[in-house]
Amino acid sequence: MTIFKLPDLGEGLSEAEIVRWHVKAGDHVVVDAPMLSVETAKAVVEVPSPLSGTIVALHAQPGDRIEIGAPLVEFAADAPAGGQTTSPADPMHAADAGTVVGQMPGQADEAAASAALEAANAVTRPRVRAVPAARALARSLGVDLSAISGTGRGGLITLDDVMAIGLPTRSAPSTLHPAPSARAPSVRPPTAPEQGDVEVLRSLRRAMAQSMSISRDSVMACSVFDDADLSRWRGGNNYTTRVLRAIAAGARIEPGLNAWYDATSQSRTLFEHVHVGIAVDTADGLLVPVIRDVERLGDTQLRVEVDRLKRAARERTVKSEELRHFTFMLSNFGMMAGRYATPVVVPPAVAILGTGRAREDVLAVQGRVEVHARMPLSLTFDHRVVTGGEAVRFLGAVIADLEQPE
Amino acid sequence: MLMSAHTVAARFEIPYRACLDADGNPIGPLPSFAQDAQLLRDMYRMMVRARAFDAKAVNLQRTGKLGTYPSCLGQEATHVGVGAAMDPEDVLFTVYREIGTKFWRGVDMYRILLYWGGDERGTLYERCPQDFPFCVPIGSQMPQAAGAALAMQIRGERRCALAFVGDGGTSQGAFYEAINFAGARSLPLVCVIVNNRWAISVPVERQTAAQTLAQKAIAAGIPALQIDGNDVLVVRETVGEALERARSGGGPSVIEALTYRIADHTTSDDASRYRTSEEVQEAWAREPVVRLGRYLRARRLWDDAAEETLKRECSDEIEAAVRRYLATPKQSTDAMFDYLMAEPPASLQLQREQARRYAATRG
Q1: A93 contacts B269? CB cut-off 8 A
Q2: What CATH architecture is A2-104?
Q3: How far is A30 from chain B, CA to nearest CA, in Å?
Q4: 3-state SS, residue A112
Q5: How many angstroms separate the Cα of A12 from the Cα of each of A49, A124, A143, A155, B68?
Q6: Per-residue pLDDT at B362
Q7: Which of B62, B127, B158, B274 is catalytic?
Q8: How far apart are CA B166 and CA B173, in angstroms?
């Protein structure tokens, strides 16, 4: 029995997709007869039969993506291996992928072979071998390649190997920008790449990854922390609507924080109206619906609008236009846990306010010890376009408004 | 109206030559060598041999037994015609497709397989040891050829350097520099531009604003003309004349051979992504092997029996070459270093040592 393995049909490719078979099990084929079409990253190519013989089995279906070196076709050769096909004893090609080898791909054999290879690599590998794309990804994720055992040919580290290490699955993103999940991000030990499921980021989570990367690469973030004393609050105050109203009050004093910045043209736009994007934690990821004209809405209208948008966000019925064009952002993370954070500014907006969990603090008040309810506040601003003075005057105005009885 | 007085400082024209039409009928009087039936048959055999080998090489790559391979399909007349025009003492500089020329000069199929299999011994040409190996970088063979021609001139030898270059290669600075130097020094250099219309995915119309590639030689003061590169008779005749003129001190020539790359650029390419199947169908109607076959049959110099015999001979020769290639033990990693410099500098010696240690860990 002879196994034909998928050869590298381009230059340094790692896999190919089966387009169609021109043969089936039981067919007799002659050397160089058309056998199948495969599509690589570079081309659709015809693969001819490497020998004359009878096809015993096809190891892949049309549409399958298979790796270079994986078993493709099992033959019963017409004559003893020789001529232009290669035999197991062939000194030049027996060990190469994509050649004909005379061995069944028993799983135990494969495992033993790869274990042996791994052991050999551990002792003798002079330097890390990884495909260029894997090196680039490892760099961007901060993954140490030498901690990875590659699963590719000869221990070569593939893109999948890096992703298995570098992209944690089923854990919260490490940024604190949305409400931090109660589950702590799990840091996976670098020695166990085969554990866990790799999840390719989709939709909301992918969008978050992109916008956070953009923020990291462009914004000069600076955070300032303080507390609003809520001891004079009367009953009936709603936490979120009071914070929204306070943001509008801050924007009246310092319009420079209710603004957009365009780095390309080095221009900023100050807004008269305050459109606050509220970070909403959903099962699929972070959504930021926008409350329009916060400065004009009364408490009741604000509360109705906030409840409506949060519900729409969690039910994923929020319209796309309700997710655009916020001029300021609010992260109400303290509803779950956390006092202070360094929330992340999302361009083109220039500031974000985070509100932590309110609690009673022991304070020194005019020489006496008192216990007051206080709301922790974290303001991050983009220092490229907002000065520290503007930021703290804004924060002061927010606190003054929040400390009103109602 | 104000006008400066003017006269014409220079004029040029590019002649076009062909012997046979697309169906193999003579267009006008044929060159005298057309009376040599043996030569005509030899050129036909060599073209068929190149085409058969080419198809096998592609299949070997597709089954993992050969590296990336650039097919010569459709360009056999230009390659074989040049080989047939050259003297053994001339020196050949190729691009990477010209197996028909290499075969004519005595390079074995086995060597070509070794070369594309990544084995340095593929450039060991027993019968034309001064010929240069395939040149994968675009255009870099041109200054080398001009340099060889200069050496011949200095030594007073009666021979010539022949350099192939592709249509894309004529955009390279190295091409212009080489033909400028050859023109200025009146070197014994013949440059054959193989215009196969595609530089990978760039069509020749996007490559240059000139009407012909041949006219680039005018600026270097070199006689230039354009020929039908799918007509082996006109290739043999035109290149032969240019070589003879160069050998006798008449200076360089540039010949643009119009042909077509019927195959993908290489086995790593998929030309259907950037050109139409109609264009390729039209090229098949003008291809060179059938054309010469028709002419030979019309003159009763060829028949079915001869064709069958030829195919069997080619098949046997290819099979033997493939068997020998696949049975050749791998070279040591030293081969990568041994032929670069007469005395390798310390940096290369260090790399050679590192490669040895690495190879030892890989078994």
Answers
A1: no
A2: Beta Barrel (2.40)
A3: 13
A4: helix
A5: 22, 24, 23, 15, 10
A6: 65
A7: B274
A8: 13
Start-to-end CA span in chain A (Å): 85
Domain boundaries defined on chain B: 16-330, 332-363
Q: Which of B45, B79, B236, B265 is catalytic?
A: B265
Q: Which residues from A are below 8 Å from B328, CB to CB?
A: 92
**Residue A43 is nearest to which of B268, B328, B330, comparing CB atoms?**
B268
Give the pTM. 0.60
Q: Is B357 on the interface with A (CB under 8 A)?
A: yes
C-alpha distances (whole Å) from B362 to each of A95, A111, A124, A154, B3 are 11, 19, 9, 9, 78
Note whether B328 and A92 are within 8 A (CB): yes
Confidence category of residue B281, pLDDT binned at 50, 70, 90 = very high
Q: Are A2 and A100 in contact (CB under 8 A)?
A: yes
CA neighbor of A170 nearest in space, from A184, A157, A160, A158: A184
**Is 50 exceeded by the pLDDT of residue B203?**
yes
The Cα-based distances of A289 to A15, A382, B322 in angstroms read 42, 21, 68
Identify the residue with better confidence: B193 or A322: B193
Give domain limits for chain A: 2-104, 208-402
Residue A233 is given by DSSP the state P
In one-letter notation, the amino acid at residue B228 is D
Place of tokens 């601003």: A381
What amino acid occupies position A178? P
Backbone torsions φ then ψ of B17, nearest 5 degrees: -130, 145
- Whether omega for the bond prior to residue A348 falls within 30 degrees of 0, making it cis, is yes
Q: Active-site residue B261, yes or no?
A: yes
Please give the ipTM for the structure prediction. 0.76
CA atoms within 13 A on the CB side of B216: 27
The confidence band for A141, taking pLDDT boundaries of 50, 70 and 90, is: confident
Q: Which CATH class is domain A208-402?
A: alpha beta
Cβ-based neighbours of B206, under 8 Å, separated by 6 or more: none
Residue pair B320/B338 in contact by the 8 Å Cβ criterion = no
Which two tokens mark A357? 């969990």
Total residues found in chain A within this entry: 406
Which element (helix H / strand E) includes A77? strand A71-77
Q: Work out the minimum CA distance from A7 to partner chain B, whole angstroms.
A: 5
Collapsing DSSP states into helix, strand and coil, what is residue A356?
coil
Q: How many CB atoms lie within 10 A of CB B212?
A: 19
Q: Are A60 and A66 in contact (CB under 8 A)?
A: yes
Strand, helix or coil at B363?
Answer: coil
Tell me the CA distances in angstroms from B349 to B118, B202, B342, B361, one per residue in order.
21, 40, 12, 19
How close B318 comes to chain A (CA, Å)? 10
Q: Does A208 touch chain B (CB under 8 A)?
A: no
CA B267/CA B331 separation, integer angstroms: 24
Is A93's CB within 8 Å of B270's CB? no
Say if CB A394 and CB A250 are below 8 A apart: yes
DSSP secondary structure string for all residues of B16-41: EE-SB-TTS-B-SPPPGGGG-HHHHH
**Other C-beta atoms within 10 Å of B18: how many?**
20
Q: Could you report the per-residue pLDDT of A214-228, keeping only the tens digit for each?
A: 899 899 999 999 999
Q: How far is CA B144 from CA B167, B175, B219, B251, in A?
A: 18, 10, 20, 17
Distance spanning both ends of chain B, measured CA to CA: 84
How would you class A200 by CB atoms within 10 Å of its CB: exposed for 0-12, middle for 13-18, buried for 19 or more? Answer: exposed
Label residue A80 by pLDDT band (50, 70, 90): low
Please check whether the domain covering B16-330 is classified as CATH 3.40.50.970. Answer: yes
CB pairs under 8 A between A and B: 81
